[in-house]
Records
---
Amino acid sequence: MASSNVKPKSISEVVSRRIFRILILCVGLSHLPLFAQKKNERYIVQIKKASSPITIDGKLDEATWREAAVAKDFFSVLPMDTSFAKVKTEVRLSYDDENLYLIATCFHLLPGPYMVESLRRDFNFGKNDNFLLFMDPFEDQTNGFSFGANAAGAQWDGIMYQGGSVDLSWDNKWTSEVKSDDEKWVFEASIPFKSIRYKKGIDKWGINFSRLDLKTTEKSAWAPVPRQFPTASLAYTGTLAWDKPPPVPGTNVSLIPYGLTGGTNDYVKKTPTNYQNDIGADAKISLTSSINLDLTVNPNFSQVEVDRQVTNLDRFELFFPERRQFFLENGDLFGNFGYATIRPFFSRRIGLNAPIQFGGRVSGKIDKNWRIGAMSMQTSRVDSVNLPAQNFSILSLQRRVFARSNIGLLIINKEAIDNKISLDPKKPNYTDHNRNIGMEYNLASSNNKWIGKAFVLKSFSPNKNGREFTHGANLTYASRKWVISWQHEYVGKDFVAEVGYVPRVGYVKVNPQASYLFFPKGKVVLSHGPLASSTYFLNESLNRLDDENYVGYRVVFRKQSSANVYISHNYVRLLKGFDPTNSGLDTIPRGTEHQWDAINLDFTSKPQSRFTYATTLRYGGYYLDGKRFSFTTDWGYRFQPYVSLALSTTYNDIQLPLPWGRQSFWLVSPRVDVTFTNKVFFTAFSQYNQQKDNVNLNARFQWRYKPASDLFIVYTDNYLSQNFGVKNRALVVKLTYWWGLNIKK
């Protein structure tokens, strides 16, 4: 026992010390002038102040547009990036004291109608003919904004982070219009300066334009982007050159009050109808042109779509993404620290079991090199479960180094207020506090071929004074043909992140991966090639816990359908009892070892068809020398641009020895989206979950009666799957209004 206690401590200390050295070295290097030349700096489009008023009507008929410089001669990105685009696109920009204006003329190459799913805002990129703008107002090649539309006029807007990711949950005020004829479709937009963040005095912004034309399967960009990267990659933006620095928008104050009414019936507990009438408000205040203050009082998120259910056959907690608008702008400053399964901060922990009373957040760019995020949220006490009132405070600082890399600091504090010890065994007790501190280095080379991360975390909790360190590091090289990566992690057994998502502790993980692509000259297959991956979990004494090894082959066709096949070998040594069906029948004993082989097949259809589908099949072994067969399918049909139908199904058939025997679980989720206009939407979907014996129905009507102002009507039902007996039912009506006040300096 003595040796097993010493060895894990030495592992954590040695690796943590190495990570600290890397981070300290990066902090020192951040002061050196080692910024690489921008890849596409020779691609420049000029922007001049408007000489005449501009009406947003999708028509190229103002004098300003006739005088504006034209960005054209786009480059093909897909299927191949070796020539100019076949589909022609032209873009013009202008501005006045209040707005940035853009008009994009998207010409057709082949006859026939455009292809879109619906008029739904923030559409699926790959299933819609679309035009997108990516802009980098700080020229840091890391953060920015994206705006655009599909060919039917559905809007797209998002905030950009990590050099090429777009968070479409971000929402702001702007206007656009799309007009089309047999030769082209035209997108015209007005983006208020007060809706975006930028530093005053800067007269050069990073910018790129992206076009997807599904009839030709061509994706193109104005400034060339290698095919292995998204057109959103800010490493490959060109330059928007202003005739003079854009105007300072003044102090922008937006108040967003809401009113809500509704009721809930609980038929299981047979309680009276719970009527709800509520008011609250958010506020957005621009402290500078690039730093925003967000405030909220008594927020309510009843309009947020319910989580998509899954059949849970996992040993660890499942992850469901954040959907609440307040937490999303600059959310990467808080929520992207660590890895997907090592998140020291996960905003869904706030208000999970207790209502939020109020909160505030400051976030944005201090200058070209520094970003800041600070948030404090207060929740109420819930006496029924002895949950104390709690304060959640988070501080994040990020410093740019080299061309596109950065170093980050994160501090998290969860504090209980008036925490009371309960003597009732049915009511849990809660810790007085939990704190986390961490540093992170994010690597992104100037050409985006090398990306990586290294981080270290330390938690502080009552009655914990042992292995509370966590660290991880990864490095990926991506060329046109090769993708090679390495990742390793260590999570100490005493590490606690109560405001995070860390489903597993007390392990070491290593994960190498590699893939290669061939590009044949035929007209059917675009690319194909092998891939391999190994994932090993070890305990802190470096003894084997779990591992998965697989090899596969993938094929991408020129019409953008794809197929994959891979075989895998799995090994698991259980650290605690586990029910392999998660149905409550029995558990497999701790310490038992299990291994099996499996084959997986998946296929995704081409996006050009009105009918689309994707399917994944798995067959192989399972725990206790059992068998598991599963398939997942996603079907879709569109009556463009107004109606989109979808059906998702998951089936698992498991064969095990008694007491489980043969178990099967269906999860079926039909969905209908009706977009009457690009401002009026109706969505209804149901979820039949055999594992949970539940049928859920959710219907939502949304009317965007003014930019960023909405009326929501949301209806939710839950039934027993056996006899469709009602469990609970709720109806909510919510009205929001965005009231903007622009204070000139």
---
Amino acid sequence: MGGSAADDAEDLDRTTVTVNVLAVPPAEPAPSRASDTSTGARTLSKRTTAMPLDLLRRDEAARASVFARLMIGLAAMGIPLIALLDVHPMARTVFAVTVAAVFVLYGYVWWFSHEVARYSLVKLGAVSQAAALTACGLVYTFGVYSPAPVVSVVALYAMALSGSFGWSFASYVTCALSHVLLAVSIHRGWIADHGMIPASSLAPRNQLVTMLCIQAVYALAFAQGRWSRSKTVKHLADLEVAMRQVAERDALLAEVHRRMDAAAMPGQPGRFTGHQLGSFRLGPLLGRGGMGEIYDAMKVGSGEPAAVKLLARHALTEPTKIARFLRELEIARTLRAPNVAAVLEVGELSAELPYLAMERLEGHDLDRHLRAHGRLTPEEAAALVEQIAAGLTAAHAAGIVHRDLKPSNIFRCEATRGADDTPVWKILDFGVSKLGGESQITMDAVVGTPAYMSPEQAKGEPVDVRTDVYGLGAIAYAALTGAAPFGGGSAAVVMTRVVRERARPPSELTELPPALDDVLARAMAKSPAERFATPAELARAFTRAIRAASDE
């Protein structure tokens, strides 16, 4: 594309965020240049440092929540037993109080463990002490030498898996000691024995053996729980080390790619210089970026100039980038419009080396133009908005939503002029576009560029034509003011502002007709339903506002 090809390659290098949508705040954008991969490795290192403890905390909270529901279920099963048990009224009363206490204690555990933010080892430890004492009521009802202590063993093991040795050991001591004290109190006659299996039904020697077995089970449950906990921590620590090593290896590999790429600068031969792809013979490199390479090319026979786009070497191992490029090829087959970069030829999607042959454009993108000239005049901006709206209308008619509109994807063709001698603007890069009725190319992800991303994109919600209306409004804002509507800070900060804040009226940043404030405010409304229905409708309102101001 002559001057444009370098711009297009540079555009491939600019940040387009693909953020995982989990129950965490949006992450920083992935480094877009190979030279920034070390930063990505450091970010991964920071994440993996806290990973074992964070994973264990989540696991503990989930386990506590499940166990609490289990105990609540058992307590519910115990309600009809209150009336059915053939025991002394005192034992029945103790059992009823125990069932009620289990409901209260484990209902509280379920409440604070249901959300990780509320989970606390102190809360769990305090409840475990109360639960161990409450279990004495169950043991008293069924008998100190009955199977009832098994419930305490299960609870003790679950507590021993937690991150606090102190609370775990305290639970063990409370379970073991309370059981011994209850047995001693019954033998001494301090408490009347009304259990279903009275202690007197066993010979003294059998009572001693049973007590020793119960105490041994308590100790084994505690020891097994702590051992399992230590093994889990060790395995997660090993995983952390392995992830660090992978991050370091990826950083080194990216640095090698960066140096290899630097050895073939624009104007110099590339990997495929001299090769023929389809109807085009490739010449020297016009430009290269984080995702692709663009070659100067000439059609065999006619000599028609072209720019051929290929995936960069390191991108061939990344499924997401391959999917983006194949998406661009697929869209290029169906989209033909004056204000969209013309596609001359598309390689087969199943080919070993897919390619995209585009018209050779002379000029530069809007981002470079704004850096050089500051901003456009309202009349120039109106021409830009009208032409880009026409290109988007054609894309939408083909069922395509661009969803990554930004100044670096809008190209100013210097050699091509319109009827009124205005430069022709064209849309580039449909690599992350969405075809009608299909899902995103990255599952459960946010795709776009933060500063020009619509609120629904930032929240990971479905996109439609009005998403491009927002993007065109944001581009018009930048063209008029020289600044993005939401800029500065990390991707997470920018995306938060996109969702929650309104952009400053452009007339506060530079001298503009106030009517444009209203037009752009509607174009960039937080709710898609409040925006213009189509880019063409936005373009008409934008032009009317400028003409009205000019007439005044």
